[in-house]
Design brief:
The chain is α+β, with helices and mostly antiparallel strands. A hairpin with a 2-residue loop joins strand 2 and strand 3.
Length: 191
C-alpha cells in the first residue's frame, strides 16, 4: 500500500467506498500501487495496468490496454475517443462488489498481455472516416481545411470521433458548427 494513495483516498468524498474496493482488487491481484496523474495507478513489471478514476457520474477502473482484453462480461467501455483504454464503470458499492472476481480475472489477463509484450494497434488519422457534414464544410472553406490539417493527429481524431459518433445528421451538423471556432483557433476538442 502506498501512503500517497492513502492520502488521496482520505480526501475522496463521493467514491471513497468504491475506490477502496477497487484498490483491494488491484492489490490482491499482485499489482504495485503508485500515485500517477494524481490518481491511484497500479503497475506490473513497470507497466501501467489499471488506474482508478473518479468522475461526476461514476467511478472507473481503467485498463490501459483494455482494447486487448476479451471482456467476456461486456463491462468495459471506451472513454471518449480512446483506442487502447477501456473502463469498468461503477456507481454503487453493490455492483462493484459483485464484479470483484471478474475484475481480478481481467487484471490477470492484462498482466499476461504485458508478459506477452502485446501492443494495441492504433488507427491512423487517415483511417478515420470524415463525416459528410464535416467534409462539406472543409470543402467550402480553405481556411477551415488548413486549420484542421494543422492540428495534431490526436486532435483531428478527437474531432472526427466526436462528430461521427452522433447518430443523426442534424446532430452531426450541429457538432460541426460547434467545433469550427475551436478548430480555427488551433485548439483540440477539450482544450
Amino acid at each position: 500500500m502506498n501512503a500517497k494513495v492513502d492520502q488521496y483516498l482520505k480526501k475522496e468524498k463521493k467514491w471513497q467506498e468504491i475506490m477502496h474496493i477497487l484498490r483491494e482488487v488491484a492489490l490482491d491481484s499482485g499489482l504495485t500501487e503508485e500515485l500517477k496523474w494524481r490518481q491511484p495507478c497500479y503497475t506490473y513489471s513497470g507497466h501501467n495496468i489499471v488506474i482508478i478514476q473518479g468522475f461526476k457520474e461514476y467511478c472507473a477502473l481503467m485498463f490501459f490496454k483494455g482494447a486487448l482484453l476479451k471482456d467476456a462480461k461486456k463491462i468495459l467501455e471506451a472513454p471518449g475517443s480512446a483506442q487502447a483504454a477501456r473502463q469498468a464503470r461503477f456507481s454503487t458499492v453493490t455492483e462493484t462488489k459483485k464484479l470483484k472476481s471478474t475484475l481480478k480475472s481481467y487484471i490477470k489477463e492484462a498482466m499476461k498481455i504485458e508478459d506477452a509484450g502485446l501492443k494495441v494497434e492504433f488507427k491512423e488519422t487517415k483511417d478515420f472516416t470524415v463525416p459528410a457534414e464535416f467534409q462539406k464544410k472543409l470543402d467550402k472553406s480553405a481556411k477551415l481545411k488548413k486549420a484542421f490539417n494543422a492540428l495534431t493527429p490526436g486532435r483531428q481524431r478527437g474531432y472526427l470521433y466526436f462528430i461521427s459518433s452522433a447518430k443523426q445528421s442534424a446532430t452531426r451538423e450541429a457538432r460541426v458548427e460547434k467545433c469550427i471556432p475551436q478548430i480555427l483557433e488551433g485548439k483540440g476538442l477539450n482544450d
